[in-house]
Design brief:
- Helix 6 packs across helix 7 and helix 9 crosses helix 10.
- By secondary structure, the chain is mainly alpha-helical.
- The N and C termini lie far apart (about 50 Å).
- It folds into three domains: about 80 residues, RNA polymerase sigma factor, region 2, helix turn helix motif (Rna Polymerase Sigma Factor, Chain: A); about 35 residues, no CATH class; about 60 residues, Orthogonal Bundle (Arc Repressor Mutant, subunit A), CATH 1.10.10.10.
- The longest helix is centred in the last third of the chain and has 31 residues.
- The chain contains ten helices and no strands.
- The chain is about 75% helix and about 0% strand.
- This is Putative RNA polymerase ECF-subfamily sigma factor.
- Keywords: DNA-binding, Sigma factor, Transcription, Transcription regulation.
- It holds the Pfam family Sigma70_r2.
Length: about 180
Amino acid sequence: MHGTVPSRVYICVTFEQFAVARLPSLLRYAVVLTGDRDLAQDVVQEVLARAQVKWRRISGSDSPDAYVRRMVLNEYLSWRRSWAFRNVHAAGERLAEIEASRGGVGDHADGVVEADALWNRLAILGRKQRAVLVLRYYEQLDDQSIADLLSCSPATVRSQASKALRTLRLEEQDQRQRIHAEEWS
């Protein structure tokens, strides 16, 4: 899993040390899930508040990092203010920063334009479809791992991914047709 640190590192780590060390990674993960930096901060803040209370149990788990990342995913999927997920703000600059931190090289402007387009397309997906794509392509998890996290079958994961990708392809095709029509008018 992306960003997972073996649990033996956290055996004697306090909650505060864990939070300081993992906060940037948790925020990046939440930003990719939510598409909104402010909402991502709210999600991570809520999760860390709950994790602090349960730290003794979490720190004794096989992977405290994976445990807290799952908490972030669950919080995202159950977030009460669901309207925010339909109103994803273009976060191209932030996504370009994330990609740059992963070693991406290229024209910054192209990356921002592509990231904005990606965020706009992801905004039309439902929460579970977006979560499946984030877990598959950002976290690089296999279908069984995603199914375990989402408490569903691998077939459901594949179905959700297929529907999400089809929706994104249709949206891209519609956008190309609109551009083509504008060029001829």
